[in-house]
Amino acid sequence: MLIDNPGILTTVQDLGRVGHRSRGINPSGVMDRTAAVLINTMLGNDENEAVLEMHFPAPEIEFENECSFAIGGADFGAELDGRAIRKWSSFNVSRGSVLRFGHRTSGARCYLAAAGGLALGEWLGSRSTNMFANVGGYEGRQLRAGDRIGLLAPRTTKPHTIGPSILPKYSRFPTVRIDASGEFELLTAISERSLLSGGFTVSIDSNRMGYRLSGPPLHLLHHKEMVSAAVTFGTIQLLPDAQLIVLMADHQTAGGYPRIANVISADLPLLAQLGPNDGVSFHLVSIEEAELLSAELERDLCRLRTGIRLLG
């Protein structure tokens, strides 16, 4: 694939670099894991195969091999050789075909996978780009005009479309489920009510490392001396200015701010598709409920994998 125009921020990502947090190496990886898994599954790829994560304005890409590809996540008005195409569907292309994105209808991040996978080397078992360390992905950086990404084993597949029942329910103001974390019980009663009944806005000072939220000020019952502790994708921390930050895919491995909650894994894709000035509200669930929702999503994905294999 030749990158004719790189767009505003296009990187190579997979499901992340696992097993290295004890050495201070964060996982990175896609922001919307469900979108990446779905389009890879549709193409018969391993779910951890690398994809392109694109923001709008999105890239212009020329295919240099006959192959199949699929797009998912945000709707950026994809066009293949000038013809509008749908997301959550796979397509066969000829050498010389060009993929463009004309307008953003919804969402913040669109994903592209190619059948057979992207031909890029791994760093610590992952092809994800870590732009802070300049490693992984394509030379550890976002893509530029003229970059070429080869395919490991280019092939065409039977076209598929994913039905709506399994797709994330994206929204510009989703209600995201959370479970209580270490310092949740230290919130004042008023702050707890504000957290669970109010709305928060994603600020412009947000990125792949974390979303800063603007909303009602939250306070603890008393100041607590904090020792840095482990954090993860979805950890919600209370900052000194009484506002919240939700850690995202490029989060650090440890943090010293109070950890009041965690976004459940099943709802992280809803956060991943938010941009500046979008809103979010929170609903508290138990850990048991969070585990059941995660298991339900995995069952749906297993059914999809089975269906794709049976259809060929």
Description of the structure:
- With 312 residues, this protein is an alpha+beta fold.
- The longest helix has 25 residues, at 287-311.
- Helix 1 (33-42) runs parallel beside helix 4.
- The chain contains 4 helices and 19 strands.
- It has a 7-stranded mixed β-barrel. A 5-stranded antiparallel beta sheet has the order 1-4-9-6-7, with no helix packed on it.
- The protein has 2 domains: 2-166, no CATH class; 175-291, Cyclophilin, CATH 2.40.100.
- It has helices at 33-42, 189-197, 268-272, 287-311, and strands at residues 2-5, 10-13, 51-54, 60-62, 67-75, 78-80, 83-84, 89-93, 98-101, 106-114, 175-180, 200-202, 210-214, 229-230, 235-238, 244-247, 254-255, 259-263, 279-284.
